[in-house]
Amino acid sequence: EPGLYIVAGPIGNLGDLTPRAAEVLRLADVVAVEDTRVSARLLRHAGSDRPMIPYHDHSAEGVRARLVERMAAESVALLSDAGTPLISDPGYKLVRDARAAGRKVTTLPGPSAAIAALTLSGLPTDRFLFMGFLPAKAKARGDALDEVAALRATLVFYESGPRLSESLAAMAEHLGDREATVSREISKAFEETATGMLTTLSARYADAPPKGEIVVIVGPPGEAPPASAEDADAALREALERLP
Ligand code: SAM
Question: How many Å apart are CA 78 and CA 28, to the nearest integer?
Answer without folding.
Answer: 10
